[in-house]
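dumping this here before i forget
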Amino acid sequence: MPQTTSQTEFALPVIELQAPPRRAIMELNSDELTAWLASFGQPRFRAGQIRRWLVQRRIQSFDQMTDLPAELRTQLAKEFRFSPFEIMRHQISKDETEKLLLRLQDGELVECVLMRDPGRRTVCISTQVGCAMGCVFCASGLLGVIRNLTPTEIIEQVLVLHRMMKDDERITNVVVMGIGEPLANYRGLMDSLTFLTAKDGFGLGARRITVSTVGLPDRIRELARSGQQYNLAVSLHAPNDALRTEIVPVNRSIGIQEILLAADDYFEMTGRRISYEYVLMSGINDQPQHAEELASLLRGRNAHVNLIPMNGVSELVMTAPRDPDTQQFLEILELRGITATVRKRKGADIDAACGQLRLNREHDRSGGSVPS
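structure:
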């Protein structure tokens, strides 16, 4: 009898090829957008139309670009994301402050805020996912730093809040004081600010933009040499190195005097008065001797001190100062000739502390485990 052989058939696994993620439309520069349009036989002027819709109009989808052909709008929606973000949470305070928690395409989270004051609409934006500076009073750094934001991710925070505003409102100011150290993402910061100030971009004046930094001297000077008159806010928080190193650990490798010298150079090169941010924490840096020492440190400098009573964060042991202590601190500075104000708290009823929404969300993701 002829021999028979048995064969075992092996089924090859089916691999589903996933399409590459769609780019956010704002990631395309003018040349890239023009080239993409040309591949579909569309004229160059369509790029300007699309850009105006994205930057100047308050629309939420490609379908609302009504002066574009319907087939072009369909193709845009097929190939591009309208925004690099998904809005995970939108909080509105009693004082009309609005705060967004945004999920990026890679799943990471950032925050941005719209603050309303008479005659002013200010947007506060982030530059990094997390922060490496380790300031002990700040929720932003409790989870460390993950990555820098791209210029598009920075710009889009302004645009997403702009689209949500009322028809009779416009953004008047931008403060780069959200999650992250802006000067640690210098290239991304500068590319985004170039767009926000460009006439064919968002068209905001440089003097209406404030960049906040923990104090990176080389980057401060580089920012001064950019030729733009951005406002500089230095997060000081202590009047001497010993205390500041406890509050802002990165100070160990920098030192207050180096920061002050760099800030002096910034004033000399730009003519813009320096703001010094000082978060007041009860029993830590809010006593009369601290005010006296701070006044001595800043005497003779063209400076303004923003006193900021600490926002409460449940994961932190520091607490806000008593109102009488804040008032006494202010009076001592003013008596010593230092211009100072107490910053009014905005959005106190909506997790207003920087990084708090992100921290709460990550806390939920991890089942309640947050690094100490």
